[in-house]
């Protein structure tokens, strides 16, 4: 695998205005922020049911020539996310090791963002679809903590509801942090990102 290979950063979510503020859509929020950071706009992809945009990630002290990022927001619903991901990975010749999924995570408390390489899907339908389509689980994940639902609320209903007013006060900061974690994985690797961001 060449280190010159582009990176495919997949923000997971559901299309449509009614889902925009849902916990399940933090992947879309992070993808949008990364697009603004690298100076691209996400538009309809010709080769997949997705919005996509390309740009270069410029590290500290660099002015140009950083790694190429392809940002993707699948426009299928969450449980069908894998098809557009694999189409774009094949078109841009992205190896599985250069795929990063950004997603909501019930098993991480709200306020925490975690980097991970490979592993299971934890019941997340978007990850399950990606793993099946890519025929591999060996991609990186940026796990945006949403915590467990209160009381007896069904987890499926919980992730399809909007962040609380208290959570929304921190949301911009946490989306920013998740974007930082994506950049750290691309520039320095998952382990480096874990060491930098897991302690805080």
TrEMBL record:
<comment type="function">
    <text>Catalyzes the release of premature peptidyl moieties from peptidyl-tRNA molecules trapped in stalled 50S ribosomal subunits, and thus maintains levels of free tRNAs and 50S ribosomes.</text>
</comment>
<dbReference type="GO" id="GO:0072344">
    <property type="term" value="P:rescue of stalled ribosome"/>
</dbReference>
<dbReference type="InterPro" id="IPR018171">
    <property type="entry name" value="Pept_tRNA_hydro_CS"/>
</dbReference>
<dbReference type="GO" id="GO:0004045">
    <property type="term" value="F:peptidyl-tRNA hydrolase activity"/>
</dbReference>
<feature type="binding site">
    <location>
        <position position="125"/>
    </location>
    <ligand>
        <name>tRNA</name>
    </ligand>
</feature>
<keyword id="KW-0963">Cytoplasm</keyword>
<dbReference type="InterPro" id="IPR036416">
    <property type="entry name" value="Pept_tRNA_hydro_sf"/>
</dbReference>
<keyword id="KW-0378">Hydrolase</keyword>
<feature type="binding site">
    <location>
        <position position="79"/>
    </location>
    <ligand>
        <name>tRNA</name>
    </ligand>
</feature>
<dbReference type="GO" id="GO:0000049">
    <property type="term" value="F:tRNA binding"/>
</dbReference>
<feature type="binding site">
    <location>
        <position position="77"/>
    </location>
    <ligand>
        <name>tRNA</name>
    </ligand>
</feature>
<keyword id="KW-0820">tRNA-binding</keyword>
<dbReference type="GO" id="GO:0006515">
    <property type="term" value="P:protein quality control for misfolded or incompletely synthesized proteins"/>
</dbReference>
<comment type="subunit">
    <text>Monomer.</text>
</comment>
<comment type="similarity">
    <text>Belongs to the PTH family.</text>
</comment>
<dbReference type="InterPro" id="IPR001328">
    <property type="entry name" value="Pept_tRNA_hydro"/>
</dbReference>
<dbReference type="GO" id="GO:0005737">
    <property type="term" value="C:cytoplasm"/>
</dbReference>
<dbReference type="Pfam" id="PF01195">
    <property type="entry name" value="Pept_tRNA_hydro"/>
</dbReference>
<protein>
    <recommendedName>
        <fullName>Peptidyl-tRNA hydrolase</fullName>
        <ecNumber>3.1.1.29</ecNumber>
    </recommendedName>
</protein>
<feature type="site" description="Stabilizes the basic form of H active site to accept a proton">
    <location>
        <position position="104"/>
    </location>
</feature>
<feature type="binding site">
    <location>
        <position position="19"/>
    </location>
    <ligand>
        <name>tRNA</name>
    </ligand>
</feature>
<feature type="active site" description="Proton acceptor">
    <location>
        <position position="24"/>
    </location>
</feature>
<comment type="function">
    <text>Hydrolyzes ribosome-free peptidyl-tRNAs (with 1 or more amino acids incorporated), which drop off the ribosome during protein synthesis, or as a result of ribosome stalling.</text>
</comment>
<feature type="site" description="Discriminates between blocked and unblocked aminoacyl-tRNA">
    <location>
        <position position="14"/>
    </location>
</feature>
<keyword id="KW-0694">RNA-binding</keyword>
